[in-house]
């Protein structure tokens, strides 16, 4: 099974965020709760954590790209899938 | 030492699980942009409202805070209607117009969560005065935070309640932070309960994550209020695990501080207490946790499929 990593809503008026830095690369193992990517919102730079444990199989949001809240930026494949 | 009966103990334990699960779900729904507004969650602090409210009767009253979903659920609010309120739907307690910080349920004695820090305390004093004048034996609980303790409203409320021997319990959920400011920076001294002496009321500081200890202190405070012996300032030491509001990156506190408090989680501590007394078998625990999870799933689905308030209803329930 695959889980999409989405831009979380982090504030009252937030509608989008800019990807600043990926902490993981495609092919890396990730653990739920581990910092995955740093995004810039209107208020602050925030680390987004991996929502699930598995392998990072796809990065959809490139650095400097502006993504909407709820937009998918990566895909994690769960083990046994 | 007053111990909870088996019924009270299981109710407290279940309520803690309910609040934890509910708040975690709210976090997910907020991140997915399903919930509007500003959200303050009480994950880590569940034991305080769960224990205090287990001592209350249905017609007792609760003045809640901006971090108040747990206080409202502990007073008996239906998860469905609380979740719907957070989603802004017409099926919520305030028909979707109150939201997280203006959620009241008068039929359950919930005077409202409150976005104005400290402002719920004078309201709690007001209902306590009403109960005293009418001799109803109702008790009011006013929840507040360590930050709220330093508002003028809190001072006025505590003073008047003491002067008039009102049937109210002031419960400070001291989670050691007011927004992003640690207690040591906003308050000199480490005991808010110690201020009680200056007001002329009882003051107790207790480990808020130790349910039996908190129950003992809260039972005495509620009994005192109900029997006409006046107010108590009960300070429950606890910790919030999540940010001040959802989306707060928590850059102001060390990760090991959070880990240390996670190790003091009230839920497994109280589970051990229940098991030791033979009040909770393993299969009962599993059933209870499963039932709570199903209840929160149901509440979420109910909120999602509920209608928005009608535009024509915008001026209903408005008092100005
Ligand atoms: C009168 C007032 N002042 C300031 C604020 C902004 N504010 C919101 S929450 C908060 C901190 C409250 O701290 P505390 O009472 O400890 O409650 P906690 O958030 O820790 O639960 C502040 C200052 C407010 N909402 N109302
Ligand atoms: Mg606080």
CATH class placement of chain B: Alpha Beta
User: How many DSSP H or I helices of chain B?
Assistant: 12
Query: Structural class of chain A, please?
Result: mainly beta
Q: Sheet with the most strands of chain B?
A: 6 strands, parallel
The helical percent of chain A reads under 10%
Stretches of chain B where pLDDT is under 50 for at least 5 consecutive residues are: none
Q: H/E order of the elements of chain B?
A: HHEHHEHEHEEEHHEHEHHH
Please provide a written account of the structure.
The complex is a heterodimer of chains A (81) and B (320). Chain A has 81 residues and is mainly β. Chain A has a single domain (2-77), classed as RNA polymerase II/Efflux pump adaptor protein, barrel-sandwich hybrid domain (OB fold (Dihydrolipoamide Acetyltransferase, E2P)), CATH 2.40.50.100. Helices cover 0% and strands 49% of the residues of chain A. Chain A has no helices and eight strands. Chain A has strands at residues 2-6, 16-22, 29-30, 35-40, 45-49, 54-59, 66-68, 72-77. In chain A, strand 4 (35-40) and strand 5 (45-49) form a beta hairpin. Chain B is an alpha/beta fold and 320 residues long. Chain B has one domain (6-299): Thiamin diphosphate (ThDP)-binding fold, Pyr/PP domains (Rossmann fold, 3-Layer(aba) Sandwich). In chain B, 44% of the residues lie in helices and 11% in strands. Chain B contains twelve helices and eight strands. Chain B has helices spanning 6-31, 47-53, 69-74, 79-86, 120-134, 152-163, 183-186, 196-199, 211-226, 255-262, 266-276, 282-305; strands at 61-63, 110-112, 140-145, 168-174, 177-178, 181-182, 202-207, 232-237. In chain B, strands 2-1-3-4-8-7 form a six-stranded parallel sheet, sandwiched between helices. In chain B, helix 4 (79-86) crosses helix 12. Chain B is globular. The mean pLDDT of chain B is 97. Chains A and B meet through strand 5 of A and loops of B. The site of magnesium ion has 6 residues of chain B, from strand 5.
